[in-house]
Amino acid sequence: MAQVTIYQFQVYDIQSDEIVKSKRCGTAKAIREIVGGEILEDTAVEVEESVVRSDIPGLTAINFDPHARTGFQTAVKR
Q1: Which of 33, 42, 47, 63 is the most buried (most CB within 10 A)?
Q2: Cβ contacts of 53 within 8 Å, gap of 6 or more
Q3: Which of 19, 76, 78 has its CA nearest to residue 8?
Q4: Domain assignments of the chain as residue spans, ordered by start
Q5: Up-side HSE of residue 49: CA atoms within 13 Å toward CB?
């Protein structure tokens, strides 16, 4: 399966009138398409492309944890 780089990001929250960190992660392309989305560059992590296929293309599901381990490890990145 293909790997993609995802990032955490900040957006303007109209309800609180503040810049907040999103509860999702996303690809740089998807984040740029969100009005006011600011990529947090130091949060980059590679994941399987399938995790960015949620209800919003290019973004993960809400509260996705890229560091959570599930199932059996099948490969080691060198």
Answers
A1: 47
A2: none
A3: 19
A4: 3-52
A5: 3
Query: How many C-beta neighbours within 10 Å does residue 32 have?
Result: 14
In angstroms, the CA 74 to CA 67 distance is 15
What is the SS3 assignment for 63?
Answer: coil
Q: How long is the chain?
A: 78
Backbone torsions φ then ψ of 69, nearest 5 degrees? -105, 130
Please choose, from the candidates 34, 38, 32, the residue with its C-alpha nearest in 3D space to the C-alpha of residue 9.
Answer: 38
pLDDT in tens, 32-70: 987 668 999 999 999 999 889 878 889 999 999 988 866
